[in-house]
Amino acid sequence: MSALGKKILDELGDTAIRWLESLGEKYRKMDIGVDTEIETLAGKAGESLSGLEAKAPEFFSKYEKIPLFQAMQEGNLALMKPKTFRQLAARLGDDEGTYSPLFDDSVEKIQKYADMYKYGELFDDIPYLRFKEETPTDYQIVAHEGRHRNRGLESLGEPVSLVRMLPTEEMDYLTDKSNYTREMLNLTDVKANPTFYDELSSFQPKGGAKVGTLGEIMEIVNIPSYKQFGALRNLK
Known about the structure:
This protein is of the alpha/beta class and 236 residues long. It has helices spanning 3-11, 14-30, 38-45, 47-55, 65-74, 82-88, 102-118, 147-155, 187-192, 214-217; strands at residues 77-80, 128-135, 138-145, 161-168, 195-197, 210-213, 219-220. Strands 6-5-3-2-4-1-7 form a seven-stranded mixed beta sheet. A hairpin with a 2-residue loop joins strand 2 and strand 3 (138-145). The termini are far apart.
């Protein structure tokens, strides 16, 4: 048993333990050479696993196990209110107070995703926001995925959303899908408490408005709450 795996296992409750056991069984059925010992899986998931169980265990039953496990390994998970995701990502048509026939499709998608959340259908990927560090205290959102899913959560009155926060060096995410040269959000970012600005991209060329500081609008899953400015109950 690895030291990290033992440490993480000692922190876990029944929900996360059962989730790990089910994850191991899924990998064994796939027979793709993954080490499915529970200690190994716990060590790979790291503090994101224990953090998610402590802060928002409902997401174990909202997402497919393998994509969630992979996101845990990246260490990029954050919690925020669905309306905060809506403020950070490029706007949909109704946010601007204008009507477009294209928004009719959005309404259908939002209802579809709300029903999936409501009736326990698992999603196979996790919403993300891609950000560029303009300065040590100014982080610009440059891309997104998951506006309709977050609208679905918001329509159900869900208090928080699980979001992958992906760093990038480029403004054009279409040519930068795997540019992870910057470290994921960590305790250094928490201490700097940077300001986030809404999406500036081809989807929203007039973006760049201030939304709030890290401590006001999100909580990093793999960092204990007492080390962060924004305890979940205080998020904007």
